[in-house]
């Protein structure tokens, strides 16, 4: 029975180290050198992320819209999370080394499974293979992202043109803004309806 460490190691191996370069290279090293490599890797990643965070301070760039700043900060958190996953994935190789797991057999089974999925177009990322509720959440999420992006562009453009707008100009902007948002919402709604119709049609033919 595979434990969590073995499962994580196999996932990392089959996803990011398909050539088994790191796996086989580390396997040839003595245990103490491998652990020294793990510690060095963690230390290097930590100082690199901290240093980059200090150099690239997104909030110091006032010309960047707030929404874009928030998005960049979120990407930064994602990079940190990926660094942690990367380190855990490499470290989990120790479970494979200690258990003498048949990696080659596992990878062969994975290749056969992926080949079957590819031939039958059963990939999870395809819309027709995603559950209807999840698709709706995906559509809503994309709409919210595009809405916030469009809103930020419109508001930023308005105040760049009119730093101190009069009441009449501001009211006119609100009317135009409302019209643009309604048009965008209508177009997006129609687009998603048509898209989901063909998705469900292809799903029924599958």
UniProtKB/TrEMBL annotation:
TM stretches of this protein: 35-56, 68-91, 136-159, 179-199
**Keywords from the named record:** Membrane, Transmembrane, Transmembrane helix
The protein here is known as Membrane protein
């Amino acid at each position: 029975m595979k434990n969590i460490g073995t499962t994580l190691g196999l996932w990392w191996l089959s996803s990011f180290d398909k050539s088994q370069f790191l796996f086989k290279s580390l396997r040839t090293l003595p245990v103490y050198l491998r652990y020294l490599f793990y510690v060095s890797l963690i230390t290097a990643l930590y100082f690199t992320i901290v240093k980059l965070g200090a150099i690239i301070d997104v909030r110091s760039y006032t010309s960047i819209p707030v929404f874009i700043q928030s998005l960049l900060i979120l990407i930064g958190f994602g990079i940190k999370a990926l660094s942690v996953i990367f380190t855990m994935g490499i470290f989990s190789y120790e479970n494979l080394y200690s258990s003498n797991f048949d990696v080659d057999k596992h990878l062969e089974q994975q290749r056969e499974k992926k080949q079957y999925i590819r031939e039958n177009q059963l990939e999870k990322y395809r819309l027709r293979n995603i559950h209807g509720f999840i698709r709706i959440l995906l559509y809503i999420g994309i709409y919210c992202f595009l809405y916030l992006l469009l809103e930020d562009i419109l508001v930023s453009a308005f105040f760049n043109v009119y730093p101190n707008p009069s009441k009449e100009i501001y009211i006119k902007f609100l009317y135009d803004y409302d019209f643009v948002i309604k048009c965008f919402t209508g177009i997006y709604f129609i687009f998603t309806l048509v898209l989901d119709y063909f998705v469900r049609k292809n799903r029924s033919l599958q």
